[in-house]
Design brief:
Order of helices and strands: EEEHHEHEHEEEHHHHEHEHH
Number of strands: 10
Shape: globular
Structural class: alpha/beta
Bound molecules: 5'-O-[(R)-(carboxyoxy)(hydroxy)phosphoryl]adenosine, zinc ion
Number of helices: 11
Strand content: 15-25%
Radius of gyration: 20 Å
């Protein structure tokens, strides 16, 4: 079964063709990073206009790379939320137009569920139940996944998402946008020597990252940061300490066999390395290019939705605040 995946929830216009939920035939991404960099963050109106320009060429590129025609496709999977409303609308409406014109079934995919399914593309053998840590620019969720499409929320951030915290810290340190890769890069030349607070929120699987960010801001404003690399390393370590400890604890409590990590922040080398070192059970993480936003993960998730008969009608709409559980 060949699925065309379409993703436009944020600042990447992406299209991919995936076979049987695991073989990537193509994975095309048009990034808007440079367009938004001058503003230090994503400007929603600019994002949706750029999606409109990029979506048709990127779908054509994905079809060409996969060497498929419309008649080779079995369905279309498109991100319906969460994300920016104007951006989501571009992908969903193009997907509906193709579905109508070509008589193809369509399924609306939750972007966060898509991130999880990047792990199926990585050829991992997955044994349910699993604990998933989803860490992106908008979300930091710990979820128990009991089977395909079956989620129980264990914890979430009470303020900033992990990726958002990286982006804000990078701005505070003047390291540029997007912040995650900038902090990771700067941290390579620094030592985690600056003490920053960790919010443990004992007895819960919730996270809080705004305190770490505010502590960093106070130090910078007070002229107490002389070495940006040390500050980046200290910030990165503080965020990752909490993510790792809480994920390992949640997996232990639920007695699962595997931990799965997903979302843009999962491409962070220290997070990947620390989780593997500190977890007594196996940790699965996709390669970095499949952690950040892409359409192959949406197509993989769509395949499992089609398997469960989840076909949407042409009244499919975007849900900008869509939840996973
Ligand atoms: O999943 P994603 O590509 O888009 C959303 O769904 O939000 O995640 C983007 C987030 C951004 O906040 C970015 O700074 C963060 O992931 N990120 C990283 C790294 N690469 C991307 N954070 C830490 N380390 C990285 N290497
Ligand atoms: Zn994402």
């Amino acid at each position: 079964m060949k699925i065309l995946g379409i993703e436009t929830s944020c600042d990447e216009t992406a299209a991919a063709v995936v076979e049987d939920g695991l073989r990537i035939l193509s994975n095309q991404i048009a990034s808007q990073v440079e367009l938004h960099a001058r503003y230090g963050g994503i400007v929603p109106e600019v994002a949706s206009r750029q999606h409109t320009l990029a979506i048709i060429p990127i779908i054509e590129q994905a079809m060409a790379e996969a060497n498929v025609t419309w008649s080779d496709l079995d369905g279309i999977a498109v991100t319906m939320g969460p994300g920016l409303a104007g951006s989501l609308l571009v992908g969903v409406n193009v997907a509906k137009a193709i579905a109508l014109a070509r008589g193809l079934p369509i399924t609306g995919v939750n972007h966060l569920e898509g991130h999880i399914y990047a792990n199926w593309l990585a050829n991992h053998t997955i044994d349910f139940p699993i604990v998933c840590l989803i860490v992106s620019g908008g979300h930091s969720d710990l979820v128990l996944m009991r089977g395909h499409g079956d989620y129980v929320l264990l914890g979430r951030t009470r303020d900033d998402a992990a990726g958002e915290a990286f982006d804000k810290a990078a701005r505070i340190l003047g390291l540029g946008y997007p912040g995650g890769p900038a902090i990771e890069q700067a941290a390579r030349n620094g030592k985690a020597s600056i003490p920053l607070p960790r919010a443990w929120l004992k007895g819960t699987s919730d996270f809080s990252f705004s305190g770490i960010k505010t502590a960093l801001l106070r130090l910078v404003e007070g002229g107490k940061v002389s070495n940006k690399a040390d500050a980046a390393a200290s910030f990165q370590e503080a965020v990752i300490d909490v993510l790792v400890a809480k994920t390992v604890a949640a997996a232990g409590e639920r007695r699962v066999q595997q931990i799965l990590v997903a979302g843009g922040v999962a491409s962070n080398g220290l997070l990947r390395q620390s989780l593997v070192q500190k977890s007594p059970i196996p940790v699965l993480v996709p390669e970095p290019v499949l952690c950040t936003d892409n359409a192959a993960m949406i197509a993989a998730c769509g395949y499992y939705r089609f398997q469960r008969g989840k076909v949407d009608g042409l009244d499919l709409d975007v849900i900008p605040s869509l939840k996973l559980a």
